[in-house]
Amino acid sequence: MFAERTGYIIWVSDVKAARNLEKYGTLHYVSRKMHYAVMYVNAERAEEVMKNVRRLSYVRKIERSYRNEIKTEYTSNGPDKSRNYSM
Q1: What is the DSSP code (8-state) at residue 79?
Q2: What's the number of domains the chain is made of?
Q3: In this structure, what CATH number is given to the domain that contains residue 24?
């Protein structure tokens, strides 16, 4: 149904030029203060796209996002302590 996507945090030296990253994938967020951009790319093309992005003059560093690997389903195996704090 949906293609598997991989997130990347791209540290840039020029925030205006970071808007050009849209042609490589889905640009999710650009921080003007901290000079980084969050971008999502299809997982099967991620390596070749990041190779092209690394060549850009305004890109300083690229980090892969580990958001897909973090467990987002939580369980409460411990006892419910809310009864102890009733009024």
Answers
A1: P
A2: 1
A3: 3.30.70.80
pTM of the shown model? 0.77
For the segment 11-49, what is each residue's pLDDT rounded down to a tens digit? 999 999 999 999 999 999 999 999 999 999 999 999 999
Residue with tokens 């467990």: 71
Angle at 57 between CA 60 and CA 42, to 5 degrees: 70
| φ, ψ for residue 16, nearest 5 deg | -65, -40
Structural domain includes residue 20: yes
- DSSP readout, 46-62? HHHHHHHHHTSTTEEEE
| Nearest C-alpha neighbor of 25 from the set 2, 45, 54 | 45
Domain around 26: 5-68
